[in-house]
């Protein structure tokens, strides 16, 4: 009898390769151009671009699986990947406010050369626009087009971006806010290398400065009165929360894998046996397995409902992101406690996993916002 052998998983092979370079990227804070080139060559940067444009045609479930796999290898690379997959998952959907010609052009560019795209929203004074307020980045009328000036911070993937979806306000008498598609090859764009954070150090989340950048009129892809942004977009929330949850779950899975190997190999002289023989270790590792199983169910459920057209309410997507993130953090912290000093040694990857996973609490939606919104709704406020 012939037994079918499953085809090799290119994403898993790439993640293993990325993991071998992850410590170097973390130490240097260098942008992972080589990793992204490998993803580009495998066609994975266009995974969520529609088939009709030459992309992979994938939905959220496949995108989340890919981000989780790459996140276990090198999570900063996975974050850059996630942002591009997210944008394509949104701009090509039915009912997208983007002009079809523009979204198609961006999709074809991703399929042809792996062009990266990300939304640039956060500003020094504003913080994240999801908490309210008008951006300081201004779009001024210039004939049929616009001129954009301002500064965006935490612009993930900045050194490799082909496009920025820049959140602006207009200089019109009736102010509008929203997104403009800005090609990063346009004159007047400057990247200031400011990113020097605790975790995800290779993500290239630098400041991007726009100085009177010319933008075609057709690239004002989604401008609305400010009140039009007050209600979260359920699809955007679902994609963002699922991909971020998958990323940090990937970090936790990498930590658990390293922990299991360490506990099997470590034989303290006082014990005369591997740490893996201790009952308390069994319970701790088993609790980590429980958290990973719960995470997998939550991410898969959110992605499957979204792909089936049953997009959950934004607060439910937020619950998934917060729960998976907190489970991942708890797991990595428990792993560090079990390992002692070895967990904090820079020669071991666990200390890097610990720093990386803590970034989950900073990514929107943050826990306080999710809980407060749910509390207000429950109280009828």
Name its key features.
Butyryl-CoA Dehydrogenase, subunit A, domain 2; 8-stranded mixed sheet; globular; 11 helices; flavoprotein; Butyryl-Coa Dehydrogenase, subunit A, domain 1; 381 residues; 3 domains; AcylCoA_DH/ox_N_sf
What does this structure look like?
There is one protein chain. The protein is of the alpha+beta class. It folds into three domains: 107 residues, Orthogonal Bundle (Butyryl-Coa Dehydrogenase, subunit A, domain 1), CATH 1.10.540.10; 111 residues, Butyryl-CoA Dehydrogenase, subunit A, domain 2, CATH 2.40.110.10; 145 residues, Up-down Bundle (Butyryl-CoA Dehydrogenase, subunit A, domain 3), CATH 1.20.140. The chain contains eleven helices and eight strands. Strands 1, 2, 3, 4, 5, 6, 7 and 8 form an eight-stranded mixed β-sheet that branches. Helix 3 runs parallel beside helix 6 and helix 6 packs antiparallel against helix 7. The model has no long low-confidence stretch (mean pLDDT 95).
List the helices and strands and how they pair.
Layout: H1 10-28, H2 33-41, H3 60-73, H4 75-91, H5 100-113, E1 116-120, E2 138-142, E3 145-155, E4 161-170, E5 177-183, E6 189-192, E7 206-215, E8 222-224, H6 234-265, H7 279-307, H8 314-339, H9 341-344, H10 350-358, H11 367-378
Parallel strand pairs: 1-4, 2-4
Antiparallel strand pairs: 2-3, 3-7, 4-5, 5-8, 6-7
Helix pairs in contact: 1-3, 3-4, 3-6, 4-6, 6-7, 6-8, 6-10, 7-8, 8-10, 8-11
